[in-house]
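User: Hi! I'm working on a homework problem where we have to compare a predicted structure to a textbook description. Could you give me the structure for the chain below?
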Amino acid sequence: MPMSEQYRLMIYFVVATLRFYRDDVKEKDYLSIEEFRKENLELWDRVGEEAKNTFEYELSWEQMSRGIEAYLCKSLSVKSSEAYVLQK
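Assistant: Happy to help. Predicted structure tokens:
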């Protein structure tokens, strides 16, 4: 089942908001999304709160998890990679 445009855009919102608050991210090698969430619970809550305040939209666990996964992935170069494709 394909994701709606708004659903996908909100995942990008998660990534952008995490980048905005990157000074608050407790940096380490996370073994799972759940470990990231536990270590950064205040940040997790803030991202959800800002989605509600800005878009009147409640992020799902899956959207938050996919956003965190994208945030944590290794940085890429435009010259050495293809466009990122979010797994459906």
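For your comparison, note the following. DSSP finds four helices and no strands in the chain. The CA atoms of residues 11 and 67 lie 5 Å apart. Good luck with the assignment!
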